[in-house]
Amino acid sequence: MSQKIVARVLLARCKTSKALYGITIEQIDQNSWSMKYSYPIDEKRAESEGFDKTTISADLYSAPDFKGCPTCGATANVKCEACHKLTCWNGEASSQCAWCGITLNVIEENGPIDVSAGED
Predict the structure, then answer these.
(1) Which residue of 18, 29, 33, 36 is surrounded by the most CB atoms within 10 Å?
(2) Mean predicted confidence (pLDDT) in 8-18
(3) pTM to 2 decimals?
């Protein structure tokens, strides 16, 4: 008997283009999730689908074939401490939130983060 795959969608914005995109994540274990796919997503669709209605605590890992941000190719994300949303990130010491524009100077790479997610 095969185990049911639990998947969610995270919303993120590209740090360079500010374009909205979705990230499909699949649950590995209780707190670990694998980022599998990313794709541009329309603002109205994201709102109507409720992709920000649930909060999960997740250690996020990139699947080996995860392509990252569909615009710039960054394969990691950083959560803004002000608006709590995700912006793509490729390891710079500081970055700017693509949602609210604040400078993100303290960037942590380890441990679970609470992120808004929606059903896939």
Answers:
(1) 33
(2) 94
(3) 0.85
Per DSSP, 98 falls in state T
What backbone phi and psi angles, to 5 degrees, belong to 46? -60, -40
Q: Are 113 and 79 in contact (CB under 8 A)?
A: yes
| Length of the chain measured in residues | 120
By DSSP bridging, strand 54-62 and strand 32-40 are parallel
Taking a C-beta distance cutoff of 8 angstroms, is the pair 81, 100 a contact?
no
In this prediction, residue 111 carries a pLDDT of 59
Average pLDDT, the chain: 86
Determine phi and psi for 104, rounding to 5 degrees: -100, 100
Q: Are 7 and 54 in contact (CB under 8 A)?
A: no
Q: How far apart are CA 96 and CA 101, in angstroms?
A: 6
